[in-house]
């Protein structure tokens, strides 16, 4: 019988307790928690109401450039559909939007991702205690815990990357693993556009594991066909609606992030000119600039993945930093020993000492755990700006590898006895204690932080719902405002006064919530000789009505 065979059962029990704590924390809160969540919730509600992948706000300037849409109601152009598809049944079942839309993320963060990380550790040869430790470590990771409270796709994509990597490792011994890898790659694309990178990652990984002959094998092509079949409906939809199977405004944003600040890079308009993309960004940077920025991002993601698990740093106490970085240090050691060991002959005495049976760095499957994250990281580093939430997928892979390494070390040193199990579990205790303290501390301030950021938008939404139910509102947070008011809306672009006026006229905007600190171009519309905007509701977010020419003549 396998030692600690109930690791999965204990993980599920701990996951249910974690889920219950999240329920108690966020169920009473009416706040969305992020502007991205507003988009996922809006599309989920649209699906639940039978209106398809549409929403009633334009959130990015790329959607306004060249006056792309005739009206505000528009097809979703920014995010892939999988999270909204998962959330829609909960909205149908429970009726309201805010809390039910979080349930897929909460279930992933408290149960599915921990189980997947534990399965990854087992695929690397970990025994029960190390599997349990890997599962609990990712479950109690504060970044994961709090990201679970948002209706967002980051944990969903991390889950699919972990499963995809695990199935790739199992292709050496299981034909079924090929199809499962294809399934998770296809779903990964529906979760994030970045999931497209999983296809070349699969090709490189299986070649490293099994040689080039595997690329001529029928099972390999069946897996790729399955992945493409899953991707095809969304590609077909984008081709029909936008004329591009891979269309997304995120792809357009890749031409700015890292070059321009968030405001200009995310909300700039382009008139009578093609909207720049990634190739334009690479040309403007030049080879040296691309290498420099990529190296900086790789270093940033390495820190977030290996040396900053629960928000402490080397400036804090040495003990806190040490056990907060358990998994990362173990993963780094495993990578280093793997690189060293593949350079030695398999029969060499030194190799036998550093790569005994049962430790992850002795396994060819380790090729997957450098190939998949490296290809993903290279695309992210070139195309985007650093994002700590994206690093969750790298952290999940490192957690599974790190605890598998510790389990292998303990069994090697202690001859597979019960002491090795006790040692691994004892190592888990300080990490779990530090994580729980961090989660509890941040949980106490979470309601106030969410209220502070969204209460003004809710108040503005309540006024619009009662006083201007047919309003079309221009603001910096059209998704959040739409959630609280039901009003159609669009973003305030980073543009000149005349361009803003053109958009106001084209989309028949009735009200504006200006942000003069970030959008000074709106100032002449409020305080000019002939003001275009008239104050109708003062508050933390003041609301202005648009005065048309006919209004001014009265």
Explain how this protein is built.
The chain is mainly α. Helices cover 62% and strands 5% of the residues. The protein contains 23 helices and eight strands. The strands form two sheets. The protein has a six-stranded mixed beta sheet. It has a two-stranded antiparallel sheet with strand order 1-3. Helix 20 links the parallel strand 4 and strand 5 (488-491). The model has no long low-confidence stretch (mean pLDDT 87).
Comma- or semicolon-separated keywords:
554 residues; mainly alpha; six-stranded mixed β-sheet; two-stranded antiparallel ribbon
Structural class, judged by helices and strands?
mainly alpha
- The poorly predicted ranges are none
Q: Largest sheet, described in full?
A: 6 strands, mixed
Strand order of the largest sheet: 2-5-4-6-8-7
Radius of gyration: 25 Å
The helix count comes to: 23
Helix content: 55-70%
Mean pLDDT: 87
Question: How large is the share of residues in beta strands?
Answer: under 5%
Q: Separation of termini?
A: 88 Å
Q: Could you tell me the number of beta strands?
A: 8
The best one-word shape is: globular
Any chance you could write out the topology, listing elements then pairs?
Elements: H1 7-26, H2 35-48, E1 54-55, E2 57-58, E3 74-75, H3 82-94, H4 103-123, H5 128-139, H6 142-147, H7 154-170, H8 176-191, H9 198-210, H10 218-242, H11 249-253, H12 262-267, H13 278-306, H14 318-324, H15 326-341, H16 349-354, H17 366-383, H18 392-414, H19 418-467, E4 472-475, H20 478-485, E5 488-491, H21 497-506, E6 511-512, H22 523-527, E7 533-537, E8 543-546, H23 549-552
Parallel strand pairs: 2-5, 4-5, 4-6
Antiparallel strand pairs: 1-3, 6-8, 7-8
Helix pairs in contact: 1-4, 1-5, 2-3, 2-20, 4-5, 4-7, 4-18, 5-18, 5-19, 7-8, 7-9, 7-17, 7-18, 8-10, 9-17, 13-17, 13-18, 15-18, 18-19, 19-20
């Amino acid at each position: 019988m396998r030692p600690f065979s109930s690791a999965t059962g204990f993980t599920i029990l701990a996951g249910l307790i974690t889920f219950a704590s999240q329920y108690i924390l966020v169920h009473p809160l009416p706040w969305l928690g992020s502007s991205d969540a507003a988009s996922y919730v809006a599309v989920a509600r649209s699906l639940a109401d039978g209106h398809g992948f549409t929403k009633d706000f334009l959130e990015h300037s790329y959607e306004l450039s060249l006056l792309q849409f005739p009206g505000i109601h528009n097809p979703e152009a920014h995010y892939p559909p999988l999270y909204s598809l998962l959330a829609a049944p909960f909205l149908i079942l429970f009726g309201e939007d805010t809390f039910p839309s979080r349930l897929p993320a909460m279930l992933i963060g408290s149960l599915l991702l921990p189980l997947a990380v534990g399965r990854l550790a087992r695929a690397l040869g970990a025994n029960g205690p190390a599997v349990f430790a890997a599962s609990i470590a990712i479950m109690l990771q504060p970044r994961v815990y709090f990201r679970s409270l948002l209706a967002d796709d980051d944990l969903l994509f991390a889950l699919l990357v972990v499963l995809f990597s695990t199935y790739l490792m199992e292709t050496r011994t299981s034909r079924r693993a090929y199809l499962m890898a294809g399934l998770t790659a296809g779903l990964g694309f529906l979760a994030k556009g970045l999931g497209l990178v999983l296809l070349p990652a699969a090709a490189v990984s299986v070649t490293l594991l099994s040689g080039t002959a595997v690329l001529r094998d029928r099972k390999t092509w069946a897996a790729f066909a399955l992945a493409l079949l899953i991707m095809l409906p969304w590609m077909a939809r984008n081709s029909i609606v936008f004329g591009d199977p891979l269309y997304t405004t995120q792809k357009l944003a890749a031409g700015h992030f890292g070059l321009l600040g968030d405001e200009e890079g995310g909300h700039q308009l382009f008139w009578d000119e093609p909207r720049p993309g990634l190739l334009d960004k690479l040309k403007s940077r030049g080879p040296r600039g691309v290498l420099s920025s990529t190296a900086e991002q790789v270093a940033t993601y390495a820190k977030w993945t290996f040396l900053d698990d629960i928000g402490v740093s080397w400036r804090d106490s040495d003990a806190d930093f040490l056990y907060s970085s358990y998994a990362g240090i173990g993963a780094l050691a495993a990578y280093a020993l793997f690189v060293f060991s593949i350079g030695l002959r398999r029969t060499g005495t030194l190799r036998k000492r550093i790569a005994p049976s049962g430790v992850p760095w002795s396994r060819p499957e380790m090729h997957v755990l450098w190939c998949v994250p490296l290809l993903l990281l290279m695309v992210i580093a070139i195309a985007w700006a650093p994002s700590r939430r994206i690093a969750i997928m790298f952290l999940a892979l490192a957690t599974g590898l790190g605890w598998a390494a510790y389990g292998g070390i303990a069994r090697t040193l202690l001859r597979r006895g019960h002491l090795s199990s006790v040692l691994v579990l004892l190592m888990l205790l300080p990490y779990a204690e530090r994580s729980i303290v961090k989660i509890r501390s941040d949980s106490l301030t979470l309601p106030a932080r969410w209220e502070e950021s969204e209460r003004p938008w809710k108040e503005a939404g309540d006024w619009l719902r009662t006083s201007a139910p047919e309003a079309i509102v221009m603001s910096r947070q059209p998704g959040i405002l739409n959630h609280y008011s039901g009003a159609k809306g669009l973003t305030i672009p980073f543009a000149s006064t005349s361009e803003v006026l053109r958009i106001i006229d084209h989309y028949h905007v009735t009200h504006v919530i200006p942000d003069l600190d970030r959008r000074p171009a709106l100032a002449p519309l409020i305080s000019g000789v002939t003001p275009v905007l008239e104050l109708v509701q003062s508050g933390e977010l003041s609301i202005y009505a648009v005065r048309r020419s006919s209004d001014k003549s009265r």
